[in-house]
Design brief:
Layout: E1 11-19, E2 28-35, E3 41-48, H1 51-56, H2 67-81, H3 83-86, E4 91-95, H4 98-106, H5 112-127, E5 132-136, H6 145-149, E6 155-156, E7 159-160, E8 162-163, H7 167-177
Parallel strand pairs: 1-4, 3-8, 4-5
Antiparallel strand pairs: 1-2, 2-3, 6-7
Length: 178
C-alpha cells in the first residue's frame, strides 16, 4: 500500500435509520449526510428498505423490530459509499442509536446478524484505511433523520448536497448477512 501524507481536514458523517412498519410507503429506511470541516454538506443518501430487505433482517418472522440492524447498515453504507472522502483524514461518525454506536466501537455483538454487520464494517474500515471516531448525536439534532424517512434533497450553506446512489451498497450489505 502506498504511503500518503493524508490531511488534517476532518469529515463528519451522520447516519440514521427509521423503522415504522405501519407506514406502507416507507416502512423503514437508512440515511446519511457527509459534511466537510466547514460544516458544508457534501453528499447524502436515502434508501427505503422494502419488505424483502426487512425479511433478510428477520422482520417480522423472527424479530419485532430491526432498528438496531438498520442503524448499523446506515453506518456501513456511509463507509462504503464515501470511502474516497474519508481516506487518510480524521473521521467522526455520529449515530443516534447507542447500541449501534457501542457495537461499532467494540467491534463485537451478541447475536448473529449484528455480528455479521460489525464484521463487515471492520473489514471495510481496514480495506479503506479508515479509522473513525464514533460518537452519539441526539436524534433531534441528527441531520440524517430526514433522509432516513424520505427521499428529499439536502441543502447546506446555500448549495444542494450531491445525492449518492445507494441501492447497490445496501443490497451488497444484505447479501453479506443473508
Amino acid at each position: 500500500m502506498p504511503v500518503s501524507p493524508g490531511t488534517n481536514k476532518p469529515r463528519f458523517v451522520f447516519t440514521d435509520a427509521s423503522f415504522e412498519p405501519s407506514d406502507a410507503s416507507w416502512p423503514a429506511g437508512v440515511g446519511g449526510v457527509l459534511y466537510d470541516e466547514n460544516g458544508k454538506a457534501l453528499r447524502h443518501f436515502s434508501y427505503c428498505l422494502d419488505k424483502n430487505d426487512l425479511a433478510v433482517l428477520g422482520f417480522p418472522e423472527h424479530k419485532q423490530t430491526v432498528i438496531f440492524e438498520a442503524e448499523l447498515i446506515a453506518v456501513i453504507v456511509a463507509v462504503k459509499l464515501w470511502k474516497d472522502d474519508l481516506l487518510d483524514r480524521p473521521v467522526v461518525i455520529f449515530v443516534d442509536n447507542n447500541s449501534a454506536r457501542d457495537v461499532a466501537v467494540s467491534g463485537s455483538a451478541r447475536t448473529v446478524t449484528p455480528l455479521k454487520l460489525v464484521n463487515l464494517l471492520l473489514t471495510l474500515e481496514d480495506e479503506f484505511s479508515i479509522i473513525p471516531w464514533y460518537a452519539r448525536v441526539p436524534s433531534k439534532s441528527n441531520p440524517a433523520d430526514e433522509p432516513s424517512r424520505s427521499d428529499k434533497e439536502i441543502e447546506s450553506l446555500g448549495q444542494r448536497a450531491v445525492k449518492s446512489e445507494v441501492e447497490a451498497a445496501v443490497q451488497f450489505i444484505l447479501s453479506c448477512i443473508n
